[in-house]
Amino acid sequence: MSSQWGETLNFEGRHTLAPTCPETRPLPRTHARGQLPLGNLAPGQAMSLAGISLRAFALGFTACLGLLSTVLVLALTSSPLWRIPFFLCALSTFHFLEFWTTAAANTPEATVHAFLLTANWPAYPIAHMVACVECVLTNVVFPSRGWAPLGLSTVLMLTGLVMVVGGQTVRSVAMLTAGQSFNHTVQTKKADSHTLVTTGVYGLCRHPSYFGFFYWGLGTQLVLGNLVCFLGYAYVLWKFFSSRVEVEEGGLVKFFGDDYVQYRKRVGTMIPFVG
């Protein structure tokens, strides 16, 4: 029988008993020799460490490259093309923060899907590519046909920057505040971890994560100087959130009853004609 105590020799030459490390057992292994049981952490699974690290690296690289390109173009040229790498930087930052806030506040849901890179595929990436094309056409190919009135383009661009930063901040804070009560998909069953959050940013806006993304998306188009995509983004985002809020609030009323009804009366969504 093993013991937690072993004999040792002290500096005076006397034998004493000293604690030793308890007996350890080797970690369980799968049937494949030399492999630990990883479950959802294995490659190809929902919480694949390989998949998460690869996506995080790609987003970080793109964000840094976009930021550096933006600074260099602004510093060394007078070209309006700094807007496109800025857009890529903002987009990469958004997707990284989607995962990071989920991992920090709702860890069980921190899967590769939490990056939202393949959400609404392929319409989502097509919309962003069209936005970049319009930016090039408006600012480079036909610069004299810019849609902003004389002297107003700078104001709209700065307004867009505020909307991008502000929208991203509100969305990330909302996800951190809601914790395990937040989910990227509408929930049809109330989990034990679900609580009605009405404090912090939720005391000012009923769906702050939607509010944040709505104005973040519109802000990116103001920065890019896009008119067509601004109107298109506004319509698509409004239609999406209008439908989603209607469905989601039906479930929230079922989950929390009159508490949510009263909360809905007190706090608006701050998205025009939604809720």
UniProtKB/TrEMBL annotation:
Location(s) in or outside the cell: Endoplasmic reticulum membrane; Membrane
PANTHER family per UniProt: PROTEIN-S ISOPRENYLCYSTEINE O-METHYLTRANSFERASE, PROTEIN-S-ISOPRENYLCYSTEINE O-METHYLTRANSFERASE
EC id: 2.1.1.100
Classification via Pfam families: ICMT (PF04140)
Regions annotated as coiled coil: none
PROSITE patterns per the UniProt record, alphabetical: SAM_ICMT
First-tier enzyme category under EC: transferase
Catalytic activity: [protein]-C-terminal S-[(2E,6E)-farnesyl]-L-cysteine + S-adenosyl-L-methionine = [protein]-C-terminal S-[(2E,6E)-farnesyl]-L-cysteine methyl ester + S-adenosyl-L-homocysteine
Topology in the lipid bilayer: Multi-pass membrane protein
Similarity comment: family membership: Belongs to the class VI-like SAM-binding methyltransferase superfamily. Isoprenylcysteine carboxyl methyltransferase family.
GO molecular function: protein C-terminal S-isoprenylcysteine carboxyl O-methyltransferase activity
Species assigned in the record: Metarhizium rileyi (strain RCEF 4871) (Nomuraea rileyi)
GO cellular component: endoplasmic reticulum membrane
Lineage of origin: Eukaryota, Fungi, Dikarya, Ascomycota, Pezizomycotina
A biological-process GO annotation: methylation
Protein name, entry field: Protein-S-isoprenylcysteine O-methyltransferase
Keyword line: Endoplasmic reticulum, Membrane, Methyltransferase, S-adenosyl-L-methionine, Transferase, Transmembrane, Transmembrane helix
Membrane-spanning ranges: 56-77, 84-103, 123-142, 147-166, 213-236
InterPro entries named in the record: ICMT_MeTrfase, PPMT_MeTrfase
Predominant place of localization: endoplasmic reticulum
